[in-house]
Amino acid sequence: MPTAEKPVSLLPRAIAHDSFVKGEKSFYVTGGTLPPTAPSYITRQADTDLYEALIVGQFCYVLNTRQIGKSSLMIRTVRRLKEDGAAVAVLDLTAVGQNLSAEQWYDGLVVLLSEQLQMEDECERFWRANGKLGPLQRFFATLKEVVLPAIASRPLILFVDEIDSVRSLPFSADEFFAGIRECYNRRVQDATYDRLTFCIIGVATPADLIQDTRMSPFNIGRRVKLMDFRSQEATPLAQGMGPNGDKLLERALYWTNGHPYLTQRLCREISRERCETVAGVDQLTRRHFLSKRALDSDDNLSFVQNRLLHSESPLADVLDFYDKLRRGDRIKDDETNPLCGLLRLAGIATVDERTSLLRLRNRIYATVFDRDWVQGNMPDAELRRQRHAAFTARIQVGSVAAVVIISLGALSGQLFRKAEEARDAANLARSEQIRAENERNRANIAEETAKRNQERAENSTKSARKSAVQTRASANAATASERRAKAGETKAVQAEREALAQRNRADIAAKAARSSAAQAEFAKDEALKQKNLAEVRGEDSEVQRKEALVQTEAAETQRKRAEAENAKASVAAEEASLARFAAEQQRKNADAQRKNADEQRKNAELSLERLNDYNRRRSEQLRVRIANNPYDIASPVELAALYFELAAIYDDVENRAKSLDNYAEAAKAFGIVLKRKPGDYPSLVQRGFCYMKMRQYNDAITDFSACIIQRPREAGSAYLNRARSYQQLGKYNDALRDLALLEKNEPVQMDYLLRGQCLMAVGLHEQAVESFSQELKKPNPAAAAEGYVWIGDARRLQGEYEAAYSAYTRYQELHPEVENVYRLRIDCLLGSRRWKDVARECVRYSQRFPRTGVMYPWHAYALLNQNDLSGYRALCLEAMERFGGANGSAENANFAAWTCALGANGLTDYEPPLRIAQKAVDEAQAQVVGGAVNKTDPLGALWANRNTLAALLLRAGKYGQALRELDACEAMPRTFTPDNRFSDYILYVLVHARNGNRAEAARYLRMLRALPPSRDIETTVEQRLLLREAGAVTRNLL
Fold first, then answer.
1. Most exposed among 231, 336, 584, 672, judged by the fewest C-beta atoms under 10 Å?
2. Is the overall model pTM greater than 0.85, yes or no?
3. Contact at 8 Å (CB) between 632 and 638?
4. Average pLDDT for residues 252-280, to the nearest whole number?
5. What was the pLDDT predicted at 420?
6. How many whole angstroms separate alpha carbon 263 and alpha carbon 229?
């Protein structure tokens, strides 16, 4: 089918953004982790249970739904344990990442642990020295051999947070849980392990995390139950609601039944709007939780709905099960029943302590998710029957939730800002330089001399900077000219196609004219024959004469019509000839423009080379001067400025290699300045920026921090660039803190896009959208348009595809030339299942960007989901015609071939797409042998093409060959994602089922069920199509 940075410590999770009531800090906190000093924190039995169990070395786990206080409980417990002298670390698995090998993942855990305990060097040395051990062994050996001895007799308590993220790892995490259990088993033999304790926290059930109960630590650990607020526990919340607080709190609990998030939020609204009556509480509840918009606007309600509607279990089964609970059926909580676990983790149901029965959590949920909601989301009866017959335990790809990644929209947004960043940094650096020169005026005579030297150095670099400006202008002109050339070429091709069409129409018209003329002659002859016959027979009948006259007139009319058709044909032929001439002229113009663009690019490159030569000569002179005079400041400053300016220019023309070389040289020169004048503020700012461009983010943070210490109220650029560095390291909370200080001290430099990106990374999508919206207030709409892309990304991650589509469309209206936004809009339409709109947008995409075939599979999804088989067949033929020839790229050939493989019985002859797919496989194999491949996944393209070939062999009924290709795919020494595995396993199921091999089809069906759902929209739609076919094929077989 078509085809980690070093982790860091953050005690993390989401930053709690306090709301305000008339300028004062809110008593209540909704969303994220409550600060340790938050007055609205409610102490529950779980606080005591977790602390007492961990302090005596018991393995604990807190597995429950979202937004009920797990993170706040963890932070409070960490604080208490540290006060008691324990060594504590929080391993937030979202900070480690997911698309990693086992080696990288365990290394990430060690990095998180060592940074929090300030043992980075010791742990790093041990990790590197024991490379022969497996990742799991090395991780636990690091704990035993390095960490535990270093903390003496103190206990080591590790909180493993967001444990549910292990389900998305490309390898099994079973051995990790088995390792935790082994630590507890070894306590009998080795007392060292008595000081090692784990606490696991997340949104999952034990069965979700590990299947083999013999290796599971959960059956030897203590489950800490985090219950909703009881009335007596929640009493402190009344303090924030005025004199009638007790009565208002009682009514709030009537609706929320103590759910932590819902209670805090409702109390906050009561306090914010100064509500004083029970009726007012009811009105606020209806407005914020029970209105039509609430399901979209409230994070918690949206989470519950998405969890129910997009689970791995069949939707009909989930809704039937929930409806029984809603109607009051007595349902026993059963750990072995996945539907019980689903309702608990969605948060909509909880377990009654006395009866062990499931019950609805509160009145808000019961009102929102009522009978109408169930019926409105229930799939139709026929679809339910088919799915029930097809799968006993069901396979379904349910969740269309976000990818952390920001993905393609992020990449397109960053391209627009890259050049601006370099220029902004240069301007800020020059501003700081002026400030430094003012300080030097108050220095001694030697510094005065250095200042005069620097002024001369600046004068000597004017010609270089002028050349740099000319270079940028030449580069931009070359790019614009090339675009015009491409546009001209496209117009020429279109004109030639139109000329050909006109010539065809002219030929048809000429044939029609000749045919009409022949008919006219024939009719005229008939008329004469009739007249002659009448005369020979002597029949002067008036009727016959009239008939002959009528036929003669008809013949004359046909003759005239034929002449007119001939005239039209002549005109059309002449127009076709003119169109061919115009097309030829346009092609020549396009060639001339392309040559001109090439010439301008060469001139731009020559200008850059000349500037390079100048810098090289001047830098050699400066280096000699620096070596001979250890007190000279001006020379290293000029040297740094030369390299810094040239690096910025190469940034503009996107020559990353040369840009990095020059940033590295600039950083060295700034280092010389700082050795001769420690703490020089402008040099610290500029060197920090160089480090940031070189992706040496920790070094950049060190320099920016030194700037901030010097001038905390004036270091706007330092705060901003330190925040950018923190973001690149995944330290989003630190980045947000810096941005808050930047907004407070120098709001004119505030980067709202950066803040929104960090908020997205910690899951605060609504606040991210608010931040991106700030960007839209800029006076230049085209410059501010990037905010629309990021708003679209945030909404897409939330599953709000209509809102995302609208945001992307606004951006597209301002920048119609950006290809990636077309893809993102189609993504949203796929997520919304607007198949007709998907087909329309794919046609538009193809017309706008005719050199890529990426849209053909998406177009096929739309047609097949509408059961438009004739349209699908026509699409397959078009894809092969455009990209199946000798001139098509291997990537486009694969798109065309995969399009043909998506639908069963789509073609009558599969030999043409088989030839295309085989050619693509051969080319990918040659690239692997030749080394011209993607270095991060050298076998990725070869796997994708083999998988496509296997699918086409299946369609052609060549099952043996299809299995050989699939076996070759599975044997490749590469890291397979769950989506890759799905693509192989589903084909195994279909091949074996169609070939009558019941046992093998069933085996791969079980393997398919064990895979997590895809997080990619396009892949999810594709998987649903293939699963639907698998259900039909295996219904009778299995």
1. 336
2. no
3. no
4. 92
5. 46
6. 9
User: What are the distances in angstroms from CA 32 to CA 103, 298, 795, 861, 1001?
Assistant: 31, 14, 19, 39, 46
Three-class secondary structure of residue 199 per DSSP = strand
What secondary structure does DSSP assign to 482-510, as a single string?
HHHHHHHHHHHHHHHHHHHHHHHHHHHHH
pLDDT (tens digit per residue) in 573-630? 555 565 555 556 655 665 666 666 566 556 555 555 655 555 556 555 555 555 555 5
Residue pair 769/799 in contact by the 8 Å Cβ criterion: no
Read off the pLDDT of each residue in 59-74 and give the average, rounded to a whole number.
92
Residue 908 domain-assigned?
yes
Buried b (16+ CB within 10 A) or exposed e, 304-342: bbbbbbbbbbbbbbbbebbbebbeeeebebeeeebbbbb
Confidence bin at 636 (pLDDT 50/70/90): low
Q: Locate all alpha helices (DSSP H) within 4-91, ordered by sequence.
A: 45-55, 70-83
Q: What is the DSSP string of 791-817?
A: HHHHHHHTT-HHHHHHHHHHHHHH-TT
Average pLDDT over residues 57-78: 92
Chain segment 868-896, per-residue pLDDT in tens: 999 999 999 999 988 887 667 888 888 99
Range of the domain at 576: 475-609
Q: In this structure, what CATH number is given to the domain that contains residue 842?
A: 1.25.40
Within-domain flag for 779:
no
Tell me which residue has tokens 């097309």.
Answer: 583
The count of structural domains within the chain is 4
User: Residue 913: how many CB atoms within 10 A of its CB?
Assistant: 29
∠ CA 897-894-170, nearest 5°, is 115
At 394 the pLDDT is 39
- 3-state helix/strand/coil string of 215-247: CCCCCCCEECCCCCCCCCCCHHHHHHHCCCHHH
Residue where a domain stops, chosen among 609, 641, 659: 609
Distance CA 346, CA 996 (A): 40
Cβ-count burial 534-570 (b if 16+ within 10 Å, e if not): beeeeeeeeebeeebeebbeebeebbebbeebbebbe
CA 2 vs. chain centroid, Å, equals 18
Contacts 24+ apart (CB under 8 A), 609-618: 610/467, 611/464, 611/467, 611/468, 611/471, 611/646, 611/649, 612/646, 614/463, 614/464, 614/467, 615/464, 615/642, 615/643, 615/646, 618/460, 618/461, 618/464, 618/642
Tokens 């009514």 label which residue?
Answer: 251
Query: Can you read off the two tokens belonging to residue 857?
Result: 């599979």
Q: Write the CB contacts of 808 (distance below 8 Å, at least 6 apart in sequence).
A: 409, 788, 789, 792, 821, 824, 825, 828
Range with the lowest mean pLDDT among 503-512, 725-734, 797-806? 503-512
pLDDT tens readout for residues 116-132: 999 999 999 999 999 88
Identify the pLDDT of residue 812: 87
Share of the chain above pLDDT 70, in %: 68
- Among candidates 472, 473, 480, which has minimal Cα distance to 593? 480
User: How far, in Å, CA of 24 to CA of 889, rounded?
Assistant: 62
932 has pLDDT over 80: no
Reading the block at residue 891, the tokens are: 């990537």
Q: Which among 379, 411, 436 is the end of a domain?
A: 379
**26 or 371, which is more confident?**
371
Does residue 1030 surpass a pLDDT of 80?
yes
Would the pLDDT of 848 be above 90? no
* Biggest CA-to-CA distance, the chain: 139
Angstrom CA distances, 35 to 424, 632, 723, stand at 36, 51, 22
Rounded to an integer, what distance in angstroms lies between the CA atom of residue 486 and that of residue 384?
A: 52
For 680, which DSSP code?
A: -
Q: 423 in a domain, yes or no?
A: no
Query: Do 308 and 210 belong together in one domain?
Result: no
**Quick one: pLDDT at residue 227?**
92
pLDDT in tens, 960-1013: 999 999 999 888 887 778 888 888 999 999 999 888 888 888 888 888 888 888
